[in-house]
Specification:
The protein is of the alpha+beta class. It is built from three helices and ten strands, in the order H-H-E-E-E-E-E-E-E-E-E-H-E.
Length: about 210
């Protein structure tokens, strides 16, 4: 609360001083109340799913596609402590032809060649080489009817050099950085890679809207 008061004071000071370049005003990257509520709701189901199917019970990756693409929407979620371990931006599939996503409105599809993201739960699979970002990707195996073509579509978790590490709201992430894959910044991919390399059990990644 105190930090928010300070930020508002800085904003007012800049505004009334006639400073027009207020982009430097500190942004609050704390997820909104609705985002946190959805995270906690998904966490309950994620715990039950991981327990039943023998998945990693320490953490999972939750991607909330309702969140503005210029804000953190990928969350590495601690299943035991029920808290965020890491958060980042995440690009969604651009689509093509008459089914194109925008920064503000992602479309979803399970069709091969659609270039759209697919909703649902995934099992993260083998670590492999990527031509993008830090040159590492993880295979994704769709576990539902909405995403069971993911492996065939070569939908993988990877990074891309231009993806910012910080939130860019109110701007959206540009289209074209993802052809359906969840695409993150390099620092986030390094963080994920270190955690994923150490786990002996499958890790749940869940994209929801």
């Amino acid at each position: 609360m105190f930090s928010k008061v300070i930020k508002r004071f800085i904003f007012c000071l800049l505004f009334f001083s006639g400073v027009t370049t207020i982009y430097l005003y500190a942004r609050d990257d704390t997820p909104g109340e609705q985002t946190i509520t959805r995270l906690k709701d998904k966490s309950v189901e994620a715990v039950a799913f991981c327990k039943k199917n023998g998945y990693n019970m320490d953490f999972c990756i939750l991607i909330d596609m309702k969140v503005h693409s210029g804000k953190h929407r990928l969350f590495v979620w601690d299943l035991k402590e029920e808290k965020i371990l890491h958060q980042s931006l995440c690009a969604h599939g651009c689509g093509k032809d008459d089914k194109k996503s925008t920064g503000a409105k992602p479309l979803f599809s399970n069709v091969n060649g659609s270039y759209l993201s697919s909703l649902g739960k995934y099992k993260l699979g083998a670590r492999s080489y990527s031509q993008w970002g830090i040159n590492v990707h993880y295979k994704m195996h769709g576990l539902e009817t909405t995403n069971n073509n993911a492996f065939k579509r070569i939908i993988v978790l990877h990074s891309h050099n231009p993806v910012p590490e910080k939130e860019i709201f109110p701007a959206h992430l540009p289209m074209g950085w993802s052809l359906g894959c969840p695409v993150v910044d390099n620092a986030t991919m390094k963080f994920l890679d270190e955690k994923l390399k150490k786990t002996k059990k499958p890790v749940l990644l869940w994209i929801y809207y």
